[in-house]
Description:
Largest sheet: 7 strands, mixed
Oligomer: single chain
Structural class: alpha+beta
Helix content: 25-40%
Strand order of the largest sheet: 17-2-1-18-19-21-20
Distance between the termini: 27 Å
Strand content: 15-25%
Amino acid sequence: MIPKECKRLAEVDFPLSIVNLACVEENNRKTRIESGHISLLHSWWARRPLSACRSLLLTLLLPDPCDAACPKEFKNKAIEALSSEKIGPKDKDLQKALFNFVSKIAPWDSVNTAGFVSTAHDLIKAAYGNDPHVLDPFSGGGSIPLEAQRLGCEVTSSDLNPVAWLLLKIALEWCPRKGTELTKQFDIWSDWVLKETEKRLAVYYPADDQGRKPLAYLWARTVKCEGSNCGVTIPLIRGLQLSISKQRKKALRIKYPSGSTEPSIDIFSYNNDGEIEKGTVAKMKATCPKCHVVTQRERVQAQLRDKHSGSDDAILFAIAREGTNGKKDYFKPTARDFEAFNKAAEKAKSIHFEMPSFPQNDTRAFPPGPYGIKTWEDVLAPRQKFSRWIIHEIIEDALRGAQKKIHDKELFNALAACLYIAYSDNSQYHTSLCVWLSEGVKSIFIQGSGIPFRADFVESNPLSNNCDGLGYSVRSIQSALHLLTSTHPHPVSPLLANALDPVLPDESVDIIFTDPPYANQIPYAHLSDFFYGYLHLGLKERLAKSFAAGQTEKARELTENRAVSEGGVHDRQWYEYGMRQAFTQMKRIIREDGVASFVFAHKETDRWEALVSALCSSWLVYHGFLAYSHRTSSAYARSGLCGTRNQCTPCLPSTP
């Protein structure tokens, strides 16, 4: 064991520039399907870089050999573990060698490099004599517990959110325990799902006469002009320019045929920008193309609210198609396109998704509420609702077939979970709040911690080969499963628990390393309700303890969130009080000679003050601070932490 008086490597130095470069490289590569990165498993907010988590955790676990209290036995075993390095006779030489090794293991994919993980295991074993116990009570997307697991630690991982818990269950437990067979079964049945989806949905997303398949359908919600003696239908389109490519400069022109109140929208090729008129909506104020009267935002909201956001009677004004040369272009919808849509829309009338309610009390983070969106089902346009339901039915058909061949219940549940996380993650590209940019369809979560309202929106093709296609989500999960399985760590069973819950006995943890909620930055529970609705659909009976409820828990989530109506007002004081209780619980759990590290990021000073105040009130003692890329700061401590973005605030030992 490491004596209490002995400093850890993290308290002495840290290869910050090298780890930052590793984080940048990881960020650039993690979304590539071939990477196998954990982020490919499913979307989650503010998932920490694996490079930073692994590097910092290792420096928290290892003692500083230059410290007078550092055990000689550790030094001897560390030199033996690093036998491939040329290490001089001085303690400073060993310290340098340890930091060099931390630098080498920093790249996120270094777990695939022969000898790196085993050397890390040997060093940690030299420090502790056994597997140290690491706790992450805010595990979220799983970066910290995954790296602790890879380093051979005993890990306790927990999160209050069932979506996060499911991702942890797959990555930390099912992949190590059932990985090879799970990967095989997912490959088989996801392939069946994709083929069946193509069979059942292709007719609703038809190619044109030249065989060009649709990439995206561009829609505009509508309102009535409230100008005197006008009353025409206004298609709400932010900009009329479709393409700026030299080969295919395309734009929209809105006209009203004589005697008609309904618009005719043409696509034309232009030579210069002066030929393109302005869009019809800005800041949700609608300008009539005919009489030029402006309908104010409040009236636009009222009209759309009466139509439950207006996606049901939106106007299809263009279709982006992929040509035989692989390049996209824009075309007017044809009679075949309208026929296919109308068939799907008619069938969608009898479909109902049991989805969580949409948050109504925070228009800062969730502005669509005043436009008539009451539940997450309301973000679906008609054909989107139909196709989402058909894919759900296909997955259920696949699972009925799989159940006849798989007699291991845990393996079957793991397969069901993986198929439904593919379905859930893909759904973020299939809402009436998605947008179309030049490079393709953008998720409903394009702004990260909020859900903006869209006057015009994109309906993507679930059969696409791009990121909005179901096949892309399947391939992403296949890649993640293969890498998570290949490292063969010991399984970790994550807990669906609050950080305030007494899940561990007193002084039972060596290291606490966690990424607590960032105050008012990310309303995790409300955002994840979108994914939860689709997971609940398929897992409410298979994983009833986690997915039987109609929505995620909000009352006990430790965030500032004006949209929460349960458990009191979730303001800064509530957040600070809750974090104080959580840190006090951690203080009870950590051993007297333990070390804790907390990751926190916020641009507002008072939110840092709230966290620091909570830490200092829980009898924790500050010992240091460092920052790494992604605008994230990590401060570490001996049984605690205090810190702000640009300065450190010490907490002196106190007695309750």
